[in-house]
Structures are given as structure tokens and as C-alpha cells.
Amino acid sequence: MFPKVKCRFPMITLLMNAPHYCALTDFDRANAARHVHDIVFTAIAHDPEQAALIVFDAECPLAGVLADAYALALPKAHLIQVETVGNEVVMNAFSALPAGSLVVLVQSTHFRLDAYRLRVQLFNQGLKVIEHVHLARMVDEQARLYIDSLAYDPVYYRGTGVALKLKIDVAPSARVVSHGGDVLLFDSALEAAKMNIGDYRAMNNVGGQFPIGEVFTEAQDLTAVHGRAKVFVFGDTTFHCNWPERAITLVVEAGRVVAVENSTPHFDDVLSKIREVEGDVWIRELGLGMNRAFSESRRVSDIGTFERMCGIHLSLGAKHGSYNKPQFKRKDTRFHIDVFIESAAVYMGDDLIFSEGLWLV
Fold first, then answer.
1. Is the predicted pLDDT of residue 179 greater than 80, yes or no?
2. N or C, which end of the chain is more exposed by having fewer CB within 10 Å?
């Protein structure tokens, strides 16, 4: 049995008992410890003899639980509570690490450490990185869902993830069927899929933002995307999930959103901001989320976390840094807004690959 977790940090203990949060239990802490152990030693494949640094804050209970879990998994790690030191201390600690070391960032919001794209900087130094962001957005039962989402099943992620990529890479087209029968057709071959499945053995950079679980692509010919799709959650202008009372229907022609049914003021605001800067509202990413902790009914408020939901999401806006398209100059693309589709079925070509909330590969 995995050892019981004991809190190491008095400030964290105090916050976990704060009245505006539900108390995370010993069972929750044990779950976090087990999942973190698997992330560190299975997904990241960290050697316990290599150096490790845990940088954390104590601003929300979930951050405290995760910091404890990493400290338990990495008993030789150096720990820095970010509120208690200056940014220079943290940056110097990063610089002192030899290549191959592990950095864990546990953030209630998102650290501002005078570093542009901190994770990229750490990768460039040859460091492995595990990053958790915006944890303060996950309160009450959402904190438990977040802990559940950290479970790392290598057979599922690496097996199903690779199988989805193989389907995508040879598919002549794709279809997303919403509940009620609306169909969004990607009437084009798809770009070679990219995977976020916790398998870094063939990658230059080891690690990234957790939780994980996604395979994504986009149409080779963006103008070949057309049809209708029902949106049940979208990312709003504050990067939170927004749940409309009724599903919003997108009407798509030539790769662009041309009409919306059952919209809301918040969604209209999102579309207006995209159009103001980019003109058209393009459909780019076709994301196949794999994380079984999240679903249409199991939700969290942070859009970057919920992006891993087991199901389909699309991006609105011209920005998608993973794929270059000749009609876009990267400096002119600003928006990548995730929207989540009520998906009854997903097809790659004629092959059904998703139904009843499950991947069928």
C-alpha cells in the first residue's frame, strides 16, 4: 500500500482547513501521492539519483496537496515556497541545476518569475519539467476531479494515443456528429497528428503541463471544413470554462464560423473579439481529448485543464502554432479559443472511433 501522506508545510495545512474550501481528505492526498509517483517515475521516467527542484506556492489547498505529494515522491528534492523568496532566488536555483534534473512547478495561478515562457527556458537548459497551473480555479469537488485527472495509465495513453494518431494520419476525412444529428465534416486529409500522452522517450523535451491526454490535428485544407456542431462549453475571455444553459450551434462554411444559433452574450463577446482582430473566425484545431477524469458532466473551471476532456474540442481563431498554413502569418494570429462539442460519434473516414464517451481504437 502506498504510504500515507503527511503535510510538510504549516501554511499549506492552514489553507486546507480554510472555511471557503471543502476539506481534501487523507484519501484525496493518498490519491494525489499515488498519481504523482506514477507521473514522476513512469511518465517522466525520472532517475531518483538525479537532482530535483520543487517550486510551489501555498495559496490554495490543491497546491498544498500536490506539493506534499511531490515532496513525498522526491525526498531528496530541494523545495522553494515561492512567496517566501525573491524571484532571483528561484531563477538562480534553476540555473544551478545540471542537465537532466527535474523541475516541478506547482502554481495556484501562474508564476511570474521574470522569465519569458519559463517552461521553454527550462527545456532549453536540458531540464525535465512538470508544470501545474491555475490550481486555485479548482475548488470543492473540482479539486478532486483534478487529482483524478493526474492518474497515469501508460497502457491506455500510449496504446490508445498511438492508435488514434495512426487513424488520423491516414484518414481521407473526418466527421464529428453532435447529439441531435448535426455533423461537422472535415472534408480533407488531416495534418500529421501530435500527441500529449506522457511518452517522452523519442522527444527532445521531457515533460510539460499536467494533466495530460490529447491527440490533435487540423484539416490540411482549412476551407474544406463545413457543417454544424453543438458547443456545450467554451473558453471565455478570462480563460475560464463557460457553460451555456443550452448548447450553442456553430454553422461553419469554408472553414469559418458564419452563423451561431442559441448564442449567449459571453459567446458573442468571444466571437466579436476574434473578428475585430482577425476578421473571420476560423476553425483550426481538431482535438481528441483522452483524459477520462473529465467528461460532459465531470467539469472543472480552468479551460487549459478541461481541454484534456475525453471527447472532442475545436479551436476558434487563426492561431495554431503547431501547424503552419500559407494564408496566415504567425505574427498576425492572436486567438485560439477552445470550444467543446457534444459528440455522439466521431469518424475517421468511414471508421467509427468514438461513441458513448469512449474511444474505440
1. yes
2. N
Q: Is the peptide bond before 265 cis (omega within 30 degrees of 0)?
A: no
Rounded distance, CA 36 to CA 283, Å? Answer: 35
The Cα–Cα gap between 171 and 358 comes to 19
pLDDT tens-digit readout, 150-175: 999 999 999 999 999 999 999 999 99
The Cα 22–Cα 66 span in angstroms is 16
Residue 257, classed as helix, strand or coil, is strand
Rounded (10°) angle between helices 26-38 and 141-149:
30
Residue 215: name the closest of 251, 164, 170 by CA.
Answer: 164
Contact 228, 330 (CB under 8 A): no
Whole-angstrom distance, CA of residue 176 vs CA of residue 344: 8
Q: What does pTM read for this prediction?
A: 0.91
Q: What is the pLDDT of residues 314-340, one digit of tens each?
A: 999 999 989 999 888 888 899 999 999
